[in-house]
Amino acid sequence: MPATAILLAAGLGTRMKSRLPKALHPIAGRPMLNHLIAACEQVFDRVVVVTGPDMPALERAAAPHATVVQRERLGTGHAALQAAPLLEGFDGDVAVLYADNPLIAPDTLTRLRAARSEAGLALLAMRPADPAKYGRVLQDAKGDVIRIVEFADADAAERAIGLCNAGVLCAPAGELFGWLRQVRNNNRAGEYYLPDVVPLAVAAGRRVIAVEAPEAELRGINSRIELAEAEAEVQGRLRQTAMAGGATLIRPDSVTFSHDTRLGKDVVVGPDVVFGPGVTVEDEVEIRAFSHLEGCVVRRGAVIGPFARLRPGAEVGPRAHVGNFVELKNAVLGEGAKANHLAYLGDASIGAGSNIGAGTITCNYDGFNKHRTEIGAGVFVGSNSTLVAPLRLGDGSFTAAGSTITRDVAPDALAFGRTRTTEKPGLAAAFRDARSKETK
Question: Global pTM?
Answer without folding.
Answer: 0.90
